[in-house]
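Question (not urgent): is this output format expected?
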Amino acid sequence: MNKTFSWLKVIGTVAALSFSSFKVAASEFVVAYDGFYDRLKVVNKGEFQYAQVNFYLTDIASNEVCTIKSGKIITEQQEFDLTYTEQAQLLLPFDKQLDTDKAVIVVQPMNPKHDCQLKLQIEATQLDEFILTKANLFALDQEFDELLSDLSGFFVSKLMWFLLPEQKGVVLKFDSTDAMSAEGVSCKENRCFINVTDDWEGDETRLSNNGALLSATPWIAK
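Got this back:
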């Protein structure tokens, strides 16, 4: 992959998953907190051991990381420092009060020429103790599928299921290239695409790998 889930834009249009964002200055990115809260609420309601919804800023024109110079969470009454990473991931609290207070996120990009956009990504990053067995990969694939369905909402996942993209398996990102070699696995640079099938459920066969596992995302067919 990594497809950065551009297909979620289609689902977002149908299932009303859009964020409210606007510009108040040429290089300033502002977005309402309520869109984040709604998605974080979905994750918190589910029983997900690994799957997460993470939020990143990228430049619209180049898709490069929209490196953050500074950021704030602002309500009418209070102002808080925004927590973020070097990769412009927004580390937001799951806070009902911020939702109630109609908080907004205000970001100043490091590069004033960057026109930032929000990227929502389903992924798993806390994988230090993850063992690469077929059973574990099947469970991870199921978590991704469930989270995607939950985020899409009842209307799409139940009544308009044909609009959902096909999930073929998982994509694993390693700290080295050609990290895996096995049937049903294809690697490109440091990412390995794994076709997960139903007969992997309960199968404790371990897949050999080289290098450390950094993250996992769903493998979505075009």
